[in-house]
Amino acid sequence: MSVRLKDQKPFAQGGNRLCFVQPTQPDRCIKVRRPDFSLEALRASKGFPKNLRPLASFDDNLEERRVMGQLDRRLGADIYAHVSHCYGMVDTDLGPGLVSELIRDSAGPIALSLKQMLWERGLTDDLQQALDDFCSFWERSCIPSRQLLPHNIVAPRDQQGNVQRLVVIDGLGESTLLPLHWLPTRWQQRRCRNKTGQLRARVDRFLAELKAGKVPSNMGRLLHDGSPTSSS
Ligand SMILES: Nc1ncnc2c1ncn2[C@@H]1O[C@H](COP(=O)(O)OP(=O)(O)OP(=O)(O)O)[C@@H](O)[C@H]1O
Ligand SMILES: [Mg+2]
Q1: Which listed residue, of 67, 101, 223, 229, carries a Cα 20 to 30 Å from 182's Cα?
Q2: Residues 6+ apart with CB under 8 A from 207
Q3: What pLDDT, in 10s, does the model give residues 150-185?
Q4: Which ligand is nearest to the Cα of residue 14, counting in written order?
Q5: What is the mean pLDDT of residues 93-122?
Q6: Residue 152 CB: number of other CB atoms within 10 A?
Q7: Residue 120 located in a structural domain
Q8: Count of domains in the chain?
Q9: Ion ligand 2 contact residues with beta carbon within 5 A
Q10: Which protein residue has the closest C-alpha to ligand 1 atom 19?
Protein backbone atom coordinates (compact mmCIF):
# COMPACT_ATOMS: atom_id res chain seq x y z
CA MET A 1 0.00 0.00 0.00
CA SER A 2 1.26 3.47 -0.82
CA VAL A 3 2.30 5.82 2.04
CA ARG A 4 0.21 9.03 2.27
CA LEU A 5 2.43 12.09 2.30
CA LYS A 6 0.31 14.66 0.42
CA ASP A 7 -1.51 15.85 3.56
CA GLN A 8 1.76 16.18 5.54
CA LYS A 9 4.12 19.15 5.62
CA PRO A 10 7.72 18.26 4.59
CA PHE A 11 10.30 19.02 7.31
CA ALA A 12 12.84 20.12 4.71
CA GLN A 13 13.36 20.69 1.04
CA GLY A 14 16.66 20.32 -0.81
CA GLY A 15 17.51 21.24 -4.37
CA ASN A 16 16.06 17.92 -5.55
CA ARG A 17 13.94 16.26 -2.87
CA LEU A 18 11.20 16.88 -0.32
CA CYS A 19 11.82 15.23 3.09
CA PHE A 20 8.93 13.93 5.22
CA VAL A 21 8.78 12.22 8.60
CA GLN A 22 7.70 8.60 8.01
CA PRO A 23 4.13 8.71 9.39
CA THR A 24 4.31 5.43 11.34
CA GLN A 25 8.00 5.60 12.35
CA PRO A 26 9.17 8.98 13.69
CA ASP A 27 12.83 7.86 13.63
CA ARG A 28 12.73 7.46 9.85
CA CYS A 29 12.22 9.89 6.97
CA ILE A 30 11.01 9.50 3.39
CA LYS A 31 12.58 11.51 0.57
CA VAL A 32 10.70 12.00 -2.68
CA ARG A 33 11.54 13.84 -5.88
CA ARG A 34 10.32 17.47 -5.82
CA PRO A 35 7.16 17.60 -7.99
CA ASP A 36 8.20 21.06 -9.26
CA PHE A 37 11.60 19.78 -10.46
CA SER A 38 11.23 16.53 -12.41
CA LEU A 39 14.06 14.22 -13.46
CA GLU A 40 13.36 15.27 -17.06
CA ALA A 41 13.85 18.95 -16.11
CA LEU A 42 17.03 18.09 -14.18
CA ARG A 43 18.46 16.21 -17.19
CA ALA A 44 17.51 19.06 -19.53
CA SER A 45 19.39 21.52 -17.28
CA LYS A 46 22.67 19.60 -17.81
CA GLY A 47 25.01 20.32 -20.73
CA PHE A 48 26.28 17.92 -23.39
CA PRO A 49 27.26 15.04 -22.98
CA LYS A 50 25.71 14.61 -19.50
CA ASN A 51 22.22 15.20 -20.91
CA LEU A 52 22.54 11.99 -22.98
CA ARG A 53 22.64 9.79 -19.87
CA PRO A 54 19.58 7.65 -18.99
CA LEU A 55 16.97 9.30 -16.73
CA ALA A 56 17.58 6.85 -13.86
CA SER A 57 21.21 8.02 -13.58
CA PHE A 58 19.93 11.43 -12.38
CA ASP A 59 17.82 9.92 -9.59
CA ASP A 60 19.41 10.78 -6.19
CA ASN A 61 17.27 8.18 -4.41
CA LEU A 62 18.41 5.26 -6.60
CA GLU A 63 22.04 6.43 -6.41
CA GLU A 64 21.91 6.81 -2.62
CA ARG A 65 20.38 3.35 -2.13
CA ARG A 66 23.03 1.76 -4.39
CA VAL A 67 25.94 3.56 -2.71
CA MET A 68 24.71 2.85 0.83
CA GLY A 69 24.37 -0.89 0.03
CA GLN A 70 27.99 -0.94 -1.21
CA LEU A 71 29.32 1.00 1.79
CA ASP A 72 27.51 -1.24 4.26
CA ARG A 73 29.00 -4.36 2.67
CA ARG A 74 32.52 -2.91 2.40
CA LEU A 75 32.91 -0.96 5.67
CA GLY A 76 30.24 -2.39 8.02
CA ALA A 77 28.35 -0.85 10.93
CA ASP A 78 31.09 1.63 11.97
CA ILE A 79 30.00 4.07 9.26
CA TYR A 80 26.67 4.74 11.00
CA ALA A 81 28.34 6.93 13.60
CA HIS A 82 28.71 9.49 10.80
CA VAL A 83 26.39 8.37 7.97
CA SER A 84 22.60 7.90 8.17
CA HIS A 85 21.14 4.39 7.64
CA CYS A 86 19.30 3.70 4.40
CA TYR A 87 16.27 1.38 4.53
CA GLY A 88 15.29 1.09 0.84
CA MET A 89 12.43 2.35 -1.30
CA VAL A 90 8.67 2.64 -0.64
CA ASP A 91 5.70 3.68 -2.77
CA THR A 92 4.13 6.99 -1.77
CA ASP A 93 1.33 9.17 -3.16
CA LEU A 94 4.13 11.55 -4.29
CA GLY A 95 6.02 8.84 -6.21
CA PRO A 96 8.84 6.48 -5.15
CA GLY A 97 10.41 7.45 -1.81
CA LEU A 98 13.72 6.56 -0.15
CA VAL A 99 13.47 5.64 3.54
CA SER A 100 16.41 6.78 5.73
CA GLU A 101 17.26 7.12 9.39
CA LEU A 102 15.93 10.48 10.59
CA ILE A 103 18.64 12.07 12.73
CA ARG A 104 17.18 13.75 15.81
CA ASP A 105 18.56 15.55 18.87
CA SER A 106 18.44 13.50 22.10
CA ALA A 107 15.56 15.73 23.25
CA GLY A 108 13.46 14.83 20.16
CA PRO A 109 13.53 17.63 17.56
CA ILE A 110 15.02 16.88 14.14
CA ALA A 111 18.74 17.75 14.11
CA LEU A 112 19.73 21.01 12.42
CA SER A 113 22.05 20.90 9.43
CA LEU A 114 25.64 22.01 9.98
CA LYS A 115 24.75 25.05 7.86
CA GLN A 116 21.79 26.04 10.04
CA MET A 117 23.80 25.37 13.21
CA LEU A 118 26.64 27.67 12.06
CA TRP A 119 24.08 30.27 11.04
CA GLU A 120 22.23 30.23 14.37
CA ARG A 121 25.03 29.53 16.88
CA GLY A 122 28.37 30.02 15.12
CA LEU A 123 31.33 27.67 15.49
CA THR A 124 31.01 26.87 19.21
CA ASP A 125 33.61 24.69 20.99
CA ASP A 126 31.36 21.59 20.92
CA LEU A 127 30.72 22.05 17.19
CA GLN A 128 34.44 22.56 16.49
CA GLN A 129 35.20 19.31 18.40
CA ALA A 130 32.48 17.43 16.45
CA LEU A 131 33.91 18.80 13.17
CA ASP A 132 37.45 17.66 14.12
CA ASP A 133 36.19 14.18 15.11
CA PHE A 134 34.20 13.90 11.90
CA CYS A 135 37.15 14.91 9.71
CA SER A 136 39.52 12.38 11.32
CA PHE A 137 36.92 9.63 10.98
CA TRP A 138 36.39 10.51 7.30
CA GLU A 139 40.13 10.50 6.56
CA ARG A 140 40.65 7.16 8.39
CA SER A 141 37.68 5.39 6.81
CA CYS A 142 38.13 6.66 3.22
CA ILE A 143 34.40 6.93 2.55
CA PRO A 144 33.74 7.89 -1.07
CA SER A 145 31.74 11.11 -1.33
CA ARG A 146 31.08 14.05 -3.55
CA GLN A 147 31.91 17.46 -2.05
CA LEU A 148 31.09 17.55 1.69
CA LEU A 149 28.57 20.40 1.97
CA PRO A 150 27.28 21.97 5.23
CA HIS A 151 23.63 21.49 4.16
CA ASN A 152 24.23 17.76 3.55
CA ILE A 153 25.58 17.17 7.08
CA VAL A 154 23.45 17.31 10.23
CA ALA A 155 24.56 18.06 13.81
CA PRO A 156 22.48 16.20 16.45
CA ARG A 157 22.69 17.56 20.03
CA ASP A 158 22.77 15.69 23.34
CA GLN A 159 20.48 16.39 26.33
CA GLN A 160 22.75 19.29 27.40
CA GLY A 161 22.39 20.92 23.97
CA ASN A 162 25.96 20.17 22.88
CA VAL A 163 26.63 18.83 19.37
CA GLN A 164 27.39 15.10 19.74
CA ARG A 165 28.63 14.22 16.26
CA LEU A 166 28.22 15.15 12.59
CA VAL A 167 26.24 12.85 10.27
CA VAL A 168 26.25 12.91 6.45
CA ILE A 169 22.70 12.57 5.07
CA ASP A 170 23.33 13.19 1.35
CA GLY A 171 26.12 13.32 -1.23
CA LEU A 172 27.77 9.91 -0.78
CA GLY A 173 29.27 8.02 -3.70
CA GLU A 174 32.12 8.31 -6.13
CA SER A 175 33.06 11.76 -7.37
CA THR A 176 35.20 10.28 -10.15
CA LEU A 177 34.88 7.42 -12.65
CA LEU A 178 37.40 5.22 -10.81
CA PRO A 179 36.04 3.73 -7.54
CA LEU A 180 38.02 5.15 -4.60
CA HIS A 181 38.72 1.71 -3.06
CA TRP A 182 40.53 0.60 -6.24
CA LEU A 183 43.26 3.15 -5.53
CA PRO A 184 46.26 2.57 -3.22
CA THR A 185 45.38 3.40 0.42
CA ARG A 186 47.63 6.48 0.51
CA TRP A 187 45.84 7.97 -2.54
CA GLN A 188 42.44 7.20 -1.02
CA GLN A 189 43.45 8.96 2.19
CA ARG A 190 44.77 11.95 0.29
CA ARG A 191 41.48 12.29 -1.63
CA CYS A 192 39.49 12.13 1.63
CA ARG A 193 41.83 14.65 3.28
CA ASN A 194 41.17 16.99 0.34
CA LYS A 195 37.42 16.64 0.90
CA THR A 196 37.65 17.38 4.64
CA GLY A 197 40.05 20.29 3.97
CA GLN A 198 37.52 21.74 1.53
CA LEU A 199 34.73 21.25 4.10
CA ARG A 200 36.71 23.20 6.73
CA ALA A 201 37.38 25.94 4.16
CA ARG A 202 33.64 26.06 3.32
CA VAL A 203 32.79 26.44 7.00
CA ASP A 204 35.28 29.30 7.37
CA ARG A 205 33.98 30.99 4.21
CA PHE A 206 30.36 30.66 5.35
CA LEU A 207 31.19 32.22 8.72
CA ALA A 208 33.07 35.06 7.04
CA GLU A 209 30.09 35.73 4.74
CA LEU A 210 27.70 35.78 7.70
CA LYS A 211 29.99 38.23 9.46
CA ALA A 212 29.99 40.43 6.37
CA GLY A 213 26.16 40.55 6.52
CA LYS A 214 25.34 38.13 3.70
CA VAL A 215 21.99 36.34 4.16
CA PRO A 216 22.33 32.62 3.29
CA SER A 217 19.83 30.73 1.10
CA ASN A 218 17.16 28.69 2.87
CA MET A 219 18.60 25.42 1.51
CA GLY A 220 19.28 23.08 4.43
CA ARG A 221 17.06 25.00 6.83
CA LEU A 222 14.29 23.03 8.58
CA LEU A 223 10.64 23.85 7.78
CA HIS A 224 9.52 22.25 11.07
CA ASP A 225 11.18 20.29 13.88
CA GLY A 226 9.35 16.95 13.44
CA SER A 227 7.40 17.04 16.69
CA PRO A 228 3.94 15.35 16.37
CA THR A 229 2.08 18.69 16.29
CA SER A 230 4.41 20.45 13.85
CA SER A 231 3.86 18.42 10.69
CA SER A 232 0.13 18.51 9.91
N1 LIG B 1 18.19 11.77 7.51
C2 LIG B 1 18.04 13.05 7.85
N3 LIG B 1 18.02 13.43 9.16
C4 LIG B 1 17.86 14.75 9.49
N5 LIG B 1 17.70 15.74 8.59
C6 LIG B 1 17.71 15.43 7.28
C7 LIG B 1 17.87 14.06 6.84
N8 LIG B 1 17.83 14.05 5.51
C9 LIG B 1 17.66 15.33 5.10
N10 LIG B 1 17.59 16.16 6.16
C11 LIG B 1 17.40 17.64 6.08
O12 LIG B 1 16.76 17.93 4.85
C13 LIG B 1 17.55 18.78 4.01
C14 LIG B 1 17.41 18.35 2.55
O15 LIG B 1 17.71 16.97 2.42
P16 LIG B 1 18.60 16.36 1.24
O17 LIG B 1 19.95 16.95 1.28
O18 LIG B 1 18.52 14.89 1.33
O19 LIG B 1 17.81 16.91 -0.06
P20 LIG B 1 18.37 17.04 -1.55
O21 LIG B 1 17.29 17.66 -2.37
O22 LIG B 1 18.90 15.72 -2.00
O23 LIG B 1 19.58 18.04 -1.38
P24 LIG B 1 20.57 18.70 -2.50
O25 LIG B 1 20.10 20.11 -2.63
O26 LIG B 1 21.89 18.62 -1.78
O27 LIG B 1 20.49 17.88 -3.73
C28 LIG B 1 18.97 18.64 4.57
O29 LIG B 1 19.70 19.84 4.35
C30 LIG B 1 18.75 18.38 6.06
O31 LIG B 1 18.57 19.60 6.77
MG1 LIG C 1 21.22 17.60 -0.03
Answers
A1: 101
A2: 118, 122, 123
A3: 999 999 999 999 999 999 999 998 766 667 777 788
A4: 1
A5: 97
A6: 20
A7: yes
A8: 2
A9: 14, 152, 170
A10: 14
Kindly identify the ligand whose nearest atom is closest to the C-alpha of 15: 1
Does residue 218 belong to any structural domain of this protein?
no
CATH classification of the domain holding 44: 3.30.200
pLDDT score recorded for residue 183: 79
- pLDDT, one tens digit per residue, over 29-87 is 999 999 887 888 888 888 888 888 878 778 888 888 888 888 899 889 999 999 999 99
Query: Residue 12 C-alpha to ligand 1 middle, in angstroms?
Result: 7
Query: Domain range spanning residue 140?
Result: 114-211
Between the CA of 61 and the centroid of ligand 2 the distance, in Å, is 11
* Residue 148 pLDDT: 97
My answer on whether 29 and 94 are in the same domain is yes
Burial tier of 1 (Cβ tally within 10 Å: 0-12, 13-18, 19+): exposed
Residues 164 and 76 in one domain: no
Same domain, 93 and 118: no
